Amino acid sequence: LFNSSTPSSNPSSIQVVNTCSALTQLSHSVKLIVPNTGQNFSLKKFYGIDKSPKLIKLKYFNKFPIGISYYLFSFLSIAYAIFDKTELYITRNIFNLILLNILKKKVIIEIHHDFHNEGRIVKFFCKYTNVFDNKNIVKIVAITNAVKKYLVKNFKIDATKIEVISSASSLKFKFSNLKKKNFYNIGY
Is the pLDDT assigned to residue 186 strictly greater than 90? Predict the structure, then answer.
């Protein structure tokens, strides 16, 4: 369940599609549910991957879901996945995690940052309930050790329940217009 443009060259989209592709290569049936944004190319062609998840674009969301659309996208994407008999959910969306916990669904949650930019509903649940203390959470993935420390400190999560997996995106660029030299100063 991914609430961002796909396919697109956004690093988050590249990372999510590569994750889905890797799961598909392990012979799992993978469906990627996204808003109806992004370009109109096949995932295989756009990303150059061998095995592609089934891309499901929810047609009611023609732009990035923010505000009330953010919550509606969460409800509808989960409803679609339940209707499709999904057994394991993977998301970066804390509101999705809250809903999936309530529905007692197996979930892997991927955390990239602290929750200061989350909406009021998510902040409320994070403050007054322990959203990460749920037996249906299969794995908590943090993209850095700093995020893991934040989760352990602020949510009292057992550090052994958190896996640190960096969020690298594979981009294939040719730097043919650069002169050959041993050292470059690169800004990102």
Answer: no
